[in-house]
Amino acid sequence: MNNTAVKIQENQRQHSSTRPHVKRKRKLKIRFTLGEKLIFVSFLLFALYAAIHIVSNQVAIYQMNKEIQQLEETIQEQKKHNNDLYVEVQQLSTYERILQKAKELGLSLNENNVKVVQE
């Protein structure tokens, strides 16, 4: 009996020491087909092209706005210069100044030859 009891105990130890059979989960590898890869790469290339195109358009718009502002500034300076010249013409064309210049040049005022012109 000793022998049988020892065998039974050994069998119990072997069964208890072995781990229960655990199913291993395989990692599912996702593989893309050639068509899917081509679609993905073409989408990335299109997105890159669109991004570059948008940035280049924004740069062109920025440069155009800068030129417009410079032209507007030039126009304002020219308007100011024109206005200054207009004021100078108005000052130089006063009746008193014209009469003074005429006397300096030796001209005399003959009221019979003067005609009044109204605008």
UniProtKB/TrEMBL annotation:
<keyword id="KW-1003">Cell membrane</keyword>
<dbReference type="InterPro" id="IPR011922">
    <property type="entry name" value="Cell_div_FtsL"/>
</dbReference>
<dbReference type="GO" id="GO:0043093">
    <property type="term" value="P:FtsZ-dependent cytokinesis"/>
</dbReference>
<keyword id="KW-0472">Membrane</keyword>
<keyword id="KW-0131">Cell cycle</keyword>
<feature type="transmembrane region" description="Helical">
    <location>
        <begin position="34"/>
        <end position="55"/>
    </location>
</feature>
<feature type="region of interest" description="Disordered">
    <location>
        <begin position="1"/>
        <end position="22"/>
    </location>
</feature>
<keyword id="KW-0812">Transmembrane</keyword>
<dbReference type="InterPro" id="IPR007060">
    <property type="entry name" value="FtsL/DivIC"/>
</dbReference>
<dbReference type="GO" id="GO:0005886">
    <property type="term" value="C:plasma membrane"/>
</dbReference>
<keyword id="KW-1133">Transmembrane helix</keyword>
<protein>
    <recommendedName>
        <fullName>Cell division protein FtsL</fullName>
    </recommendedName>
</protein>
<dbReference type="GO" id="GO:0032153">
    <property type="term" value="C:cell division site"/>
</dbReference>
<comment type="similarity">
    <text>Belongs to the FtsL family.</text>
</comment>
<dbReference type="Pfam" id="PF04977">
    <property type="entry name" value="DivIC"/>
</dbReference>
<comment type="function">
    <text>Essential cell division protein.</text>
</comment>
<feature type="compositionally biased region" description="Polar residues">
    <location>
        <begin position="1"/>
        <end position="15"/>
    </location>
</feature>
<feature type="coiled-coil region">
    <location>
        <begin position="61"/>
        <end position="88"/>
    </location>
</feature>
<keyword id="KW-0132">Cell division</keyword>
<keyword id="KW-0175">Coiled coil</keyword>
